[in-house]
Amino acid sequence: MKNVFDAQDTAATIARINNLSPDTQPLWGKMRVAEMLAHCNVAYEMVFTDKHPKPKGFKKFLIKLFAKKIVVGPQPYKRNIRTAPEFLISDERDFNTEKKRLIAYLEKTQQLGASHFEGKESHAFGKLSVKEWNILFYKHLDHHLGQFGV
């Protein structure tokens, strides 16, 4: 698995994103490419903005119990796996805007570095290790870039 905190790995991931175009079609699933980029941005929005309210109480308990292992575990995502409601993109998105936002988030994450994320509290899973943060960020993005053949 690539390391989002490594400059070369981040550059390689950005190169994959730059291979997308507004007309790139998915190999599976229903998302359009701009929608996919917006969907991938949500993981970073949860870290770098207050746009999404944090789950509380029983909902947070269930997320940690059932979703954490899937999200920060090493197993790849299955195709057409169900997503959390916060990650559903229901409005039209601009390809170039979402692409620029995603690249900026990747660069910011890499520049902040692993030490910034060690033990940092995640939106729904509690404190995560650097390894878990890397998996959370990279596995999701890799899954969707693969979905669009890049």
What would the keywords be for this entry?
150 residues, mainly alpha, globular, 6 helices
Polypeptide structure, described:
By secondary structure, the chain is mainly alpha-helical. It has one domain. Helix content is 56%, strand content 3%. It contains six helices and two strands. The chain has helices at residues 7-18, 33-48, 57-72, 95-112, 114-117, 130-147; strands spanning 121-122, 126-127. A two-stranded antiparallel ribbon has the order 1-2. Strand 1 (121-122) and strand 2 form a beta hairpin. Helix 1 (7-18) runs antiparallel to helix 4 and helix 2 (33-48) packs parallel to helix 4 (95-112). The longest helix has 18 residues, at 95-112. It is globular, with a radius of gyration of 15 Å. The chain starts with 6 loop residues before the first helix and ends with a helix. The mean pLDDT is 92.
**Beta-strand residue fraction:** under 5%
Question: Structurally, how many domains make up the residues?
Answer: 1
Mean pLDDT: 92
The major β-sheet equals:
2 strands, antiparallel
What would the principal axes of the Cα set say about the shape?
Answer: globular
> Kindly, what is the distance between the CA atoms of the first and last residues, rounded to a whole number of angstroms?
16 Å
pLDDT < 50 runs, ≥5 residues: none
Q: Which class do the helix and strand fractions yield?
A: mainly alpha
Radius of gyration: 15 Å
Distinct helical segment count = 6
Number of strands: 2
* Strands in their spatial order, largest beta sheet: 1-2
Q: Would you list the SSEs in sequence order as H and E?
A: HHHHHEEH
Helix content: 55-70%
